[in-house]
Amino acid sequence: MILLYGADTAEKIKEEISGMLSELKGYTPTLGIVRIGSNPSDISYEKGAVKKMESLSLNTKVFEFDENISSDDFIDEFKKINEDDEIDGILLFRPLPEHIDEKKVIEVLDERKDLDGISYKNIAKVFAGDESGFAPCTAKAVIKILESNNIELEGKNVVVLGRSMVIGKPVAMLAIQKNATVTLCHSKTADLKKVCKNADILIVAIGRAKMINDDYIGEDAVVIDVGINFFEGKLCGDVDLENVKNAAMATPVPKGVGAVTTSVLAQHLVISALKKRLY
Ligand code: NAP
Questions:
Q1: 42 lines ligand 1 (CB under 6 A)
Q2: Tens of pLDDT, residues 173-227
Q3: Residue 272 known to bind ligand
């Protein structure tokens, strides 16, 4: 089995970003990271994002808020960040605490700064096949990994496992846009193993440690594992990769999709800065 390491795709995205940066003629884009509280997985993602931006000579500004901030106060602060001309793009950690009106916050976010595709306009664009918006970074990272490894989507049976708005649904739409035939599965799908076995490309995003084994994987399938779980104190994906024999290619966890997500975020930031010159 060939392992599809995210670092190879990240390197290709880095080259694309370098070309785009030269068009900015010395201007350095700034990412605004907005976080309420200090959830360990948010902090861990933030560290990776800051490191990635540094490695690409991009700026980051972290806006951290107390988890007891009121909904109105947070919305006021978020409006200021959204309108700040020095901030070219925003990453907002979600879910927000329950007392914060998330819908109102998302409505404030300018879709041109919405690097992780959470605003309604960007979601609509992904579903309409309009590539002028920003898709969620992880969903885009999956497509980037396939493309950079020359894995054709056109005409392929793609099965997506998981129907969340951050991964499952948008990645299904992006694959359809590339002319794949897509089946979107979830916890109520009947004959899940049979449906998955039929996939040329199986994209797994369910958050169930090592659940997917050869019972779900057809001969010579390509398996993209988006899952990030902890099992017996170790980071692992949704796929039991150590015991998989059927797949021709698969992404590992760690060092797979997660390694590409922050590269896509950086690329979206640079695209946002480039577009800003036009409005
Ligand atoms: P989520 O919102 O919890 O959605 C999980 C989806 O999986 C749901 O649609 C659920 O079905 C489905 N599902 C759960 N158990 C299932 C089962 N036994 N059989 C079939 N379907 C099942 O999760 P998410 O936010 O999409 O995240 C998915 C995974 O990706 C998590 O492990 C997360 O940590 C990881 N992740 C990775 C990255 C990255 O950069 N690599 C980024 C974000 C998230 P129902 O809709 O029927 O409930």
A1: no
A2: 999 999 999 999 999 999 999 999 999 999 999 999 999 999 999 999 999 999 9
A3: no
- In the reported structure, the alpha carbon of residue 238 is separated from the centroid of ligand 1 by a whole-number distance in angstroms of 9
Q: How far is CA 118 from CA 4, 9, 95, 109, 122, in A?
A: 28, 24, 11, 9, 7
The tokens of 259 are what? 């390694």
Chain mean position to CA 73: 28
Q: List, as one string, the DSSP characters of the chain.
A: -EE--HHHHHHHHHHHHHHHHHHTTT---EEEEEEES--HHHHHHHHHHHHHHHHTT-EEEEEEE-TT--HHHHHHHHHHHHH-TT--EEEE-SSPPTTS-HHHHHHHS-TTTBTTS-SHHHHHHHHHT-TTS---HHHHHHHHHHHHTT---TT-EEEEE---TTTHHHHHHHHHHTT-EEEEE-TT-TTHHHHHHT-SEEEE-S--TT-B-TTT--TT-EEEE---EEETTEEE-SB-GGG--S-SEE--SSSSTHHHHHHHHHHHHHHHHHHHTT-
- According to the model, what pLDDT value does residue 115 have? 98
The verdict on whether residue 94 carries a ligand-binding annotation is: no
Go through the domains of the chain in sequence order and give each one's CATH number.
24-112 (3.40.50.10860), 137-258 (3.40.50.720)
